[in-house]
Amino acid sequence: MATAAVHYAAAAVTDRGRKRPSNEDAFALSVEHGIYLVCDGMGGAAAGEVASALAVTEIMRQLARSAAAVALPEAAVAAIRAANQAIFSRSQRNRKLRGMGTTLVALLVEDRRAWMFNIGDSRGYRLRNGRLEQITQDHSIVEEQIQMGRMSPAEAARSPLKNMITRALGTQSCVAPDVFALEAEHGDLFMLCSDGLTREISDPLIESLLSVDLPLDKLCERLVGAGNQAGGHDNITCLLVRANG
Question: Is the pTM of this model over 0.85?
Fold first, then answer.
């Protein structure tokens, strides 16, 4: 018996939040090519904006160019490496951009096959049958402490080290993403977001906000609005991808 194909719809919202003077987050999406990206830049002056924008531009360019193999994880890893090199090289050429970098969370889909990639502490989730599951794992000092049993999640949320990430795109000449192979089901809702969302609102609240029958753009607005209402201390980006029959 043939299995019905999966088709995707997507929407995204980004906001500078209530405290930051500018927005260093960036996102890109292509339903046609099955590519979805969220980046959270860092660096002095406008360097964070440069790094995140360069990352999404270079990855989209690389993957759109190799459209025949766009959903293969090897193609994505190659595109991420190219983006890393582009950011690193730019920072080496311009002293004002030295040390700039960006986190990355990405989703690639091809029918029922899906892959998530991440570097840093921007996250990827999947909501299935009303249950929210975090797919990616943060590359951060506090996450390492949690994994070793030296810190609880509650302690990590209060730690002065909570913003210290251990892996970023563009800060070194070579970096590797974590890769998660998934299988999409009809009704799955994938969420990619910067830490400006997850530092403000809990996973249970995100789950309840996503479990409402609304268009994807309205769901994004609800999440970003909740993040701002909770403090909005950082830029907030939310990108949602729904698998439909």
Answer: yes
